[in-house]
Amino acid sequence: MWKLTLSFAIVFSALSANASFVTITQCDSASSTHTLKIVQDGDDAEVTLGDKKPHKYDDLVSKAPGNKKYKLTGQMTNTFRVADISLPELRDTQKVTDLVASLMFQRPEFDGEYDMVYSYASDLVHNLNCR
Protein backbone atom coordinates (compact mmCIF):
# COMPACT_ATOMS: atom_id res chain seq x y z
CA MET A 1 0.00 0.00 0.00
CA TRP A 2 2.86 2.36 0.87
CA LYS A 3 4.44 1.85 -2.59
CA LEU A 4 1.12 2.51 -4.33
CA THR A 5 0.60 5.73 -2.36
CA LEU A 6 4.16 6.85 -3.05
CA SER A 7 3.82 6.05 -6.77
CA PHE A 8 0.55 7.98 -6.94
CA ALA A 9 2.17 10.96 -5.19
CA ILE A 10 5.10 10.96 -7.64
CA VAL A 11 2.80 10.76 -10.69
CA PHE A 12 0.50 13.45 -9.30
CA SER A 13 3.46 15.73 -8.55
CA ALA A 14 4.82 15.25 -12.06
CA LEU A 15 1.42 16.10 -13.59
CA SER A 16 1.09 19.16 -11.37
CA ALA A 17 4.55 20.36 -12.36
CA ASN A 18 3.69 20.00 -16.05
CA ALA A 19 0.41 21.84 -15.58
CA SER A 20 2.20 24.84 -14.10
CA PHE A 21 4.26 25.22 -17.30
CA VAL A 22 1.25 25.53 -19.61
CA THR A 23 1.92 28.47 -21.91
CA ILE A 24 -0.65 31.23 -22.10
CA THR A 25 -1.03 32.29 -25.73
CA GLN A 26 -4.16 34.46 -25.71
CA CYS A 27 -6.32 36.55 -23.39
CA ASP A 28 -9.77 37.87 -24.35
CA SER A 29 -12.31 40.20 -22.81
CA ALA A 30 -15.47 41.88 -24.05
CA SER A 31 -17.95 44.54 -23.05
CA SER A 32 -21.27 45.30 -24.67
CA THR A 33 -19.51 47.43 -27.31
CA HIS A 34 -15.82 46.45 -27.51
CA THR A 35 -13.48 43.47 -27.53
CA LEU A 36 -9.97 43.25 -26.10
CA LYS A 37 -7.55 40.59 -27.29
CA ILE A 38 -3.97 40.06 -26.17
CA VAL A 39 -2.02 37.49 -28.17
CA GLN A 40 1.50 36.14 -27.77
CA ASP A 41 3.25 36.51 -31.13
CA GLY A 42 6.76 35.12 -30.89
CA ASP A 43 8.64 37.13 -28.27
CA ASP A 44 6.13 40.00 -28.44
CA ALA A 45 2.59 40.58 -27.19
CA GLU A 46 -0.03 42.16 -29.43
CA VAL A 47 -2.85 44.08 -27.73
CA THR A 48 -5.94 44.81 -29.87
CA LEU A 49 -9.05 46.81 -28.99
CA GLY A 50 -11.89 46.41 -31.46
CA ASP A 51 -15.56 47.11 -32.01
CA LYS A 52 -17.84 44.27 -31.04
CA LYS A 53 -20.33 44.97 -33.86
CA PRO A 54 -19.96 46.75 -37.20
CA HIS A 55 -20.91 50.42 -37.30
CA LYS A 56 -23.21 51.79 -39.97
CA TYR A 57 -21.78 54.77 -41.82
CA ASP A 58 -23.35 57.27 -44.22
CA ASP A 59 -24.16 55.87 -47.64
CA LEU A 60 -21.61 56.27 -50.39
CA VAL A 61 -23.44 57.79 -53.31
CA SER A 62 -22.05 57.33 -56.78
CA LYS A 63 -21.81 60.45 -58.95
CA ALA A 64 -22.43 58.34 -62.02
CA PRO A 65 -25.81 58.45 -63.75
CA GLY A 66 -28.42 56.62 -61.71
CA ASN A 67 -26.94 57.74 -58.36
CA LYS A 68 -26.44 54.25 -56.99
CA LYS A 69 -26.06 54.12 -53.20
CA TYR A 70 -23.63 51.83 -51.46
CA LYS A 71 -24.20 50.89 -47.83
CA LEU A 72 -21.09 51.23 -45.67
CA THR A 73 -20.34 49.35 -42.47
CA GLY A 74 -17.05 48.90 -40.69
CA GLN A 75 -15.24 47.99 -37.53
CA MET A 76 -12.34 49.95 -36.09
CA THR A 77 -9.44 48.19 -34.41
CA ASN A 78 -6.43 49.64 -32.65
CA THR A 79 -3.35 47.53 -31.97
CA PHE A 80 -0.19 47.97 -29.93
CA ARG A 81 2.74 45.56 -30.12
CA VAL A 82 4.80 45.23 -26.94
CA ALA A 83 8.28 43.93 -27.74
CA ASP A 84 10.09 41.20 -25.81
CA ILE A 85 7.41 40.38 -23.24
CA SER A 86 5.39 37.27 -22.45
CA LEU A 87 1.65 37.38 -21.84
CA PRO A 88 1.94 36.42 -18.15
CA GLU A 89 4.66 39.04 -17.68
CA LEU A 90 2.56 41.72 -19.39
CA ARG A 91 -0.52 40.76 -17.41
CA ASP A 92 1.43 40.99 -14.14
CA THR A 93 3.05 44.39 -14.85
CA GLN A 94 0.02 46.32 -13.57
CA LYS A 95 0.42 48.49 -16.69
CA VAL A 96 -2.12 46.65 -18.84
CA THR A 97 -4.87 49.08 -17.85
CA ASP A 98 -2.66 52.01 -18.91
CA LEU A 99 -1.99 50.27 -22.22
CA VAL A 100 -5.69 49.62 -22.89
CA ALA A 101 -6.58 53.19 -21.88
CA SER A 102 -3.98 54.45 -24.38
CA LEU A 103 -5.68 52.39 -27.10
CA MET A 104 -9.03 53.87 -26.09
CA PHE A 105 -7.79 57.46 -26.21
CA GLN A 106 -7.01 56.90 -29.92
CA ARG A 107 -10.67 56.24 -30.69
CA PRO A 108 -13.32 58.94 -31.26
CA GLU A 109 -15.91 57.41 -28.92
CA PHE A 110 -13.54 57.78 -25.95
CA ASP A 111 -13.05 61.51 -26.27
CA GLY A 112 -14.57 61.96 -22.83
CA GLU A 113 -13.31 62.12 -19.32
CA TYR A 114 -10.01 60.62 -18.30
CA ASP A 115 -11.36 58.72 -15.27
CA MET A 116 -14.24 57.20 -17.28
CA VAL A 117 -11.79 55.82 -19.86
CA TYR A 118 -9.64 54.28 -17.11
CA SER A 119 -12.71 52.78 -15.45
CA TYR A 120 -13.79 51.19 -18.73
CA ALA A 121 -10.24 49.97 -19.45
CA SER A 122 -10.00 48.53 -15.96
CA ASP A 123 -13.24 46.57 -16.45
CA LEU A 124 -11.96 45.06 -19.71
CA VAL A 125 -8.63 44.11 -18.12
CA HIS A 126 -10.29 42.69 -15.01
CA ASN A 127 -12.47 40.41 -17.17
CA LEU A 128 -9.58 38.99 -19.24
CA ASN A 129 -9.90 35.26 -19.81
CA CYS A 130 -6.49 33.75 -20.57
CA ARG A 131 -5.76 30.35 -22.08
Short descriptors:
about 130 residues, two-stranded antiparallel sheet, 4 helices, elongated
Description:
- It is a single chain.
- Helix content is 36%, strand content 32%.
- The protein is built from 4 helices and 7 strands; from the N terminus they run H-E-E-E-E-E-E-H-H-H-E.
- The radius of gyration is 22 Å and the shape is elongated.
- Helix 3 (96-105) packs across helix 4.
- The protein has one domain (26-130).
- The chain is α+β, with helices and mostly antiparallel strands and 131 residues long.
- A hairpin with a 2-residue loop joins strand 2 (34-41) and strand 3 (44-51).
- Mean pLDDT is 84; it is low at 4-20.
- The strands form 2 sheets. It has a 5-stranded antiparallel beta sheet with strand order 6-3-2-1-7, covered by helices on one side.
- The chain has helices spanning 2-20, 87-91, 96-105, 114-126, and strands at residues 26-30, 34-41, 44-51, 55-61, 69-74, 77-82, 129-130.
General form: elongated
- The gyration radius over C-alpha positions equals 22 Å
The sequence of SSEs as H and E is HEEEEEEHHHE
Question: Share of helix among residues?
Answer: 25-40%
Number of helical elements: 4
Quick one: how many beta strands? Answer: 7
Q: Mean of residue pLDDT?
A: 84
Query: What can be said about the biggest beta sheet?
Result: 5 strands, antiparallel
- The number of domains is 1
Please report which band the strand proportion falls in: under 5%, 5-15%, 15-25%, 25-35%, 35-45% or over 45%: 25-35%
Structural class: alpha+beta
Strand order of the largest sheet: 6-3-2-1-7
Low-confidence stretches: 4-20
Keywords: Signal
Signal peptide: 1-19
